[in-house]
Write a structure and sequence with these properties.
With 382 residues, the chain is of the alpha/beta class. Helix content is 34%, strand content 25%. The protein is globular and about 65 Å long. This is FAD-dependent oxidoreductase.
Amino acid sequence: MLIAGGGIAGTVAALALERAGWQPRVYEARLGEEGGAWLTVAVNGLAALRALGEDPSEIVTAGFATPSLTMVNGKGRRLAVLPLGGPAPDGTVTTTIKRIDLYAALRTAAEKRGIPIERGKRLTGFEERPDGVTATFADGSDARGDLLVGADGLRSRTRELLNPAGPAPRYLGLLNAGGFTDRPVDVPLDRTPGMVHMAFGRRAFFGWAVAPDDSVWWFANPGRKQPVRPGEFTPQQWRAHLIGLFEGDNLPAAAIIRATGEALGPWNTDDLPRVPVWHGERVVLVGDAAHAVSPSSGQGASMAIEDAVTLGRCLGEGGTLADYERRRRARVERVVAYGKRNGSGKTAGPVGAAIRDAMFPVVMKLLYRNGDPQAWIHDHRP
């Protein structure tokens, strides 16, 4: 069993397939660890990890519980306090973790099961045969197996080969950035444990949470019509640009960024329109390769985990790649649409912002009066 990609989807797929009786081998393009900022693993993603026989608390031990969300506007006025998914019946709540720590924990779990992970193996092609598949890599090597799992991300080579005229990633009109403070913030902060704060600034959206070590983890989403080009900003220019976006807002955003040595990003916020072909005879897509979702959904990691667990269960039960697609496609396409809607609400103009601020508390009360309106996301179990 060959797996192209050693990120969240690929490593969890390896764990799921090993549990189902296969002998997976992971081929990762990067030579070193991927950096990046932080993400949330929602209760549905944590529940899927438990289905692998893994203790989710051990996988996300470097993170911290974030069960609640406060929404505010650019004037600092609280609009709503909402649950951030869960708690599940067993007490599990959404957890926030640095991307690099989640990758490291998943790879440690794979290594404990004896799953080999090779680096510097960027997939360039594959050939399906009646008895298996051969994958080729940029370094001139190849590998043979019964099945190839394409977990190679948003710009998946596996997807390109399965969908020669298929969709490219779609820019959503938002940039993404983030970071971690490395010195005290010079304004008062709400330090309620487990509370994530999100703010509709006048010129950009901002989110932050205070970690147990008192550092502040944050992200920013400036609206921009055109995607950013590589090298367009130096790190210093980008940090100054972000600070300028939040000057004049009654938010701690500018102070938090000033207390950050280097802001991470900018990254373009992309998703994928519907991918027509998810699998061949011996090749299948999982995670962002099949259905990249906007970070605004809060479900990128959890959808990848669900995919991987579902694939392992389908194949372990004697099912087919088509069975896996039938179990996953409708759900993930609904989540992609949900994430796109959430992102579009971050960039309202002055009139739209006034309407939003007036209506948001009322709408949230109506939506939550009968429970979690996102229960269709959080209560799902593979």
